[in-house]
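just leaving the lab so this will be short. what follows is a protein written twice so to speak, once as letters and once as structure tokens for the fold. can you read through it and tell me how you think this chain folds. anything you notice is useful, everything is just below:
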Amino acid sequence: GTDEWFRSVWGSSGTDVFAVGAGGRILHYDGSDWSTMTSDAGTWFECVWGSSGLDVFAVGGEGAVLHYDGSNWSRMISGTSVTLYGIWGSSDADVFAVGSSGTILHGAVE
């Protein structure tokens, strides 16, 4: 259980679901249980999206963009400090994030 607020949920299947929200919280559901995932974000998250369970992205406050590669979450350089509210793509090579002040980011995982 948790008393944190969650802002977004995304899953590649019923046994691979991610939830993100307040306090930089990231949870993962494996079909049976929710578990806390660790990241060094230090901020809150607004949205999570993935092209697969091995390419998941979370965005949020202070320009935070995190990428999950199936093992670890790592921070990506976004080039902005505005809050990012949404993320979506057609693949891991075609990802868009949107945020405050009309910010639109486009990129790929390198």
Notes: The chain has a mean pLDDT of 93. The longest strand covers residues 6-13. The chain has no helices and eleven strands. The radius of gyration is 13 Å.
